[in-house]
Every structure is written in structure tokens, then in C-alpha cells.
């Protein structure tokens, strides 16, 4: 029986994680849950799983958690606009595994804290590695923690490497292409929020759905792969695969290529992250049928159209504060798009302008990462004010 903390339990990844844990009560026990603002759903989850710790980042919802029928044994941790709630859950003494499903830069502190505490981090928060990759790897070394990726593409690479001592010579991650894969640039620029959220193969939250529509998400995944698997950027590629059945290819020095296939469901990589290196139980996904799956096709990324992808990889190559600024500018621009402040076409424009304005510096401390992140967000606000 292993204790599991789920950070971001009310989001799409968090709900998928709880669905997996629900199927395996003999192997896992939920010991901590946190959410950002969805107090009502968090309360329902806490009543079902009876964790030892419940955290709500937005303290304005305190009263919603204090209703009748809520277990007196559940400790309430409510902090307004503070990462402390996430850190306390991530370092809970009963937690062997921390599923970090927090969206965006806000998940970094919890990742670092869990790794320093020697936990296994099932990492769905790719921004931790994107913004502070060297610091995250150092935290794992210093604390004895381990990082097991939850993103389907990185999980696929890990599965292809399982049981072999051979080092990969190249990794190819797949992308669905998003809802605008075949659209012309002028039509993409005018896309609505509703159109951007209509992902063709995955059910995800709003922010990552927009990132998939811009293909920025694939740039973030390339940076993440760089740190997870230690390969230089010229040995990391992306191909568009609309069916989302093949999640990654791994090429070895002799030219052999392995691929991991499966129906598009986050529950399989979540279960693998929980049980790695073993394969245990049932992820709850439907079985893959190669006949009914139909033809599997692959296309190049339209880098001239989805410029955010190309820029993100470039910023990853620069290193230092560059990927931190890229990520922060993207988060701020996507938020502006989702609240109706800007058009879809301006997301890429804002990221490009902020990235061009930034002078790259080393990020050897968390404070340096925060400074770069804060500068980029402030610069986006300035540009919006213009």
C-alpha cells in the first residue's frame, strides 16, 4: 500500500488520476488532495477518499469546505494565493508518490519540495522542467527523489526504454496537430475560444487545449524531453500524427526504432507512473484494436504557421532564463485569450515580442527563475496596455 498525494485533483489530469486510484484500493491510498479554486469538487473527493490532508490554494472558498458531513479527521489547509498548501501536500510524510497535475509555473515549488523530500514525482506539470530543469534535476539528486513523466509522449519514451541499457540516439514525439491542423493562417488568427478548445483526440483543460492549438505544448514537451532523457535538441523531433495512437518513437544507434501505441487516454501513463517499472492492474482504457484504428498517418509540423512551436524550441536551445520567459509569456497570453482580451492570433505575437525583448541570463537559483517569470508576465501586461 503506497500513499499518494494528488496536486490539482479537480483538473482533468487529477480526475483521471483519481479514476486510476479508485480501481486499485489494494495498492494505493490517497493521503493528500489539493485544488486551486474548485472547493465543491474538492470536498466531494475528500469525502470519497478520506485523505489525511486537503488543501485549497484559493482561501476565498473556505466556507465551501466546512459543510456538514465533511470528515472531522480531514485536515483543512487553506491559503490564499500561496504555494504553501501545495508544498505541504507534496511533502506529506505519508505520501510515497506525488502526482503533480498543477497547471503552469505554479507547480514548480511543489515539484522541488517533493523531490528534496525523496518522493517519487509523477510529473504532469511539464512547466517545472521547462522553467527550471537544472534545478529540478539537482533537487532529485540531492533529495533522492525520482521523476516519472505522466505526459503520454514522455511516458511512451520511458516505456520504450524499459529493460534496455542502450541509449537512444533520437526521440520523436508525436502531436495530434490540434484543432487547426489543416486551417489557413488567416483563419487560425481569427479562431474563437470555443474553436481553440475543441481538441480532436484528447479531453483536457482550457490552458493545455489552447497550447495544443498553438503547438506551443509540443515545444514545452521538447524542452521537457531534453531534461528527462538528456538528449541535445538536434536529436529531438516532433511529427504530426492526427490519430494520437503512436505516442513516441525511440531510435537507437543501430537504426532500430521502437514505438509505444495505445488509445488516447491519460489513465494509462498515470498508472505506469504509479507502478513503474512494473506493469500492474488495469488502467481502465479500452483495448487497442489495430484494425478498427484505421490508417495511421504522419505529417511534418507546419513551423511557418505554428511559429510558437519553432520559437519555443529555439528558446529551449538558448537555455538559461529563455525557456522560463517563453513559458511565462505564453501563460499570460493564453490567459488573456481565454478571458477575451486578445485574439488567438495575438498569442504568438506576444510571445515573440517578449522573447525578443529578453536578455538571457543564467538561472542558478529559484529566485532567478521567479525574476525571469515575473519580468515576462509584466512585459505582457505592458504590451497589452499599448
How many β-strand stretches? 11
Query: Segments where pLDDT lies below 50 for 5+ residues?
Result: 77-81
Query: Main sheet: which strands, in order across?
Result: 4-3-2-1-5-6-7
Order of helices and strands: EHEHEHEHEHEHEHEHHHHEEEHHHHH
Bin the strand percentage: 15-25%
Anisotropy-based shape: globular
Q: What descriptors fit this protein?
A:
single chain; 386 residues; alpha/beta; Rossmann fold; Rna Polymerase Sigma Factor, Chain: A; 3 domains; 7-stranded parallel sheet; 4-stranded mixed sheet; 16 helices; 11 strands; globular
Describe this structure in words.
The protein is α/β, with parallel strands linked by helices. It has three domains: 2-149, 3-Layer(aba) Sandwich (Rossmann fold), CATH 3.40.50; 151-304, no CATH class; 319-386, Rna Polymerase Sigma Factor, Chain: A (Orthogonal Bundle), CATH 1.10.1740. It contains 16 helices and eleven strands. It has helices at residues 12-23, 39-49, 62-65, 84-90, 108-116, 127-143, 152-161, 185-189, 193-196, 206-214, 216-229, 267-275, 307-318, 322-338, 345-357, 366-385, and strands at 2-7, 28-35, 53-56, 75-78, 97-100, 120-123, 146-149, 168-175, 236-240, 246-252, 257-261. The strands form two sheets. It has a seven-stranded parallel sheet, with helices on both faces. The longest helix is centred in the last third of the chain and has 20 residues, at 366-385. It is globular and about 55 Å long.
Amino acid at each position: 500500500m503506497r500513499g499518494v498525494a494528488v496536486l490539482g485533483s479537480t483538473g482533468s489530469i487529477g480526475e483521471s488520476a483519481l479514476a486510476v486510484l479508485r480501481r486499485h484500493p489494494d495498492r494505493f491510498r490517497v493521503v493528500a488532495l489539493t485544488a486551486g479554486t474548485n472547493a465543491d469538487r474538492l470536498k466531494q473527493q475528500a469525502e470519497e477518499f478520506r485523505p489525511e490532508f486537503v488543501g485549497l490554494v484559493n482561501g476565498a472558498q473556505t466556507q465551501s469546505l466546512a459543510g456538514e458531513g465533511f470528515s472531522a479527521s480531514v485536515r483543512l489547509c487553506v491559503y490564499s494565493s500561496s504555494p504553501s498548501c501545495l508544498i505541504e501536500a507534496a511533502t506529506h510524510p505519508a505520501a510515497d508518490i506525488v502526482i503533480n497535475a498543477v497547471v503552469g509555473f505554479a507547480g514548480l515549488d511543489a515539484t522541488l519540495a517533493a523531490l528534496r523530500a525523496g518522493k517519487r514525482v509523477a510529473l504532469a506539470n511539464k512547466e517545472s522542467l521547462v522553467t527550471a530543469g537544472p534545478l529540478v534535476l539537482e533537487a532529485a539528486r540531492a533529495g533522492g527523489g525520482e521523476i516519472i513523466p505522466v505526459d503520454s509522449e514522455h511516458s511512451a519514451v520511458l516505456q520504450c526504454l524499459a529493460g534496455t541499457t542502450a541509449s537512444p540516439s533520437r526521440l520523436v514525439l508525436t502531436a495530434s496537430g490540434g484543432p487547426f491542423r489543416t486551417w489557413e493562417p488567416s483563419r487560425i488568427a481569427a479562431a474563437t475560444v470555443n474553436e481553440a478548445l475543441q481538441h480532436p483526440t484528447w479531453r483536457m483543460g482550457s490552458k493545455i487545449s489552447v497550447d495544443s492549438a498553438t503547438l506551443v505544448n509540443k515545444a514545452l514537451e521538447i524542452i521537457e524531453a531534453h531534461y528527462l532523457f538528456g538528449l541535445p535538441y538536434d536529436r529531438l523531433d516532433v511529427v504530426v500524427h492526427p490519430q494520437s495512437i503512436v505516442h513516441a518513437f525511440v531510435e537507437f544507434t543501430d537504426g532500430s526504432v521502437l514505438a509505444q501505441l495505445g488509445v488516447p487516454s491519460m489513465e494509462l501513463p498515470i498508472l505506469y507512473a504509479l507502478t513503474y517499472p512494473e506493469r500492474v492492474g488495469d488502467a481502465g482504457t479500452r483495448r487497442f484494436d489495430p484494425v478498427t484504428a484505421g490508417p495511421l498517418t504522419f505529417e511534418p509540423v507546419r513551423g511557418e504557421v505554428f511559429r510558437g512551436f519553432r520559437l519555443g524550441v529555439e528558446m529551449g536551445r538558448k537555455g538559461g532564463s529563455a525557456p522560463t520567459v517563453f513559458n511565462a509569456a505564453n501563460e499570460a497570453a493564453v490567459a488573456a485569450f481565454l478571458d477575451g482580451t486578445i485574439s488567438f492570433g495575438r498569442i504568438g505575437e506576444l510571445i515573440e515580442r517578449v522573447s525578443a525583448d529578453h536578455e538571457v541570463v543564467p538561472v542558478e537559483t529559484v529566485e532567478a527563475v521567479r525574476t525571469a517569470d515575473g519580468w515576462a508576465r509584466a512585459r505582457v501586461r505592458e504590451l497589452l496596455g499599448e
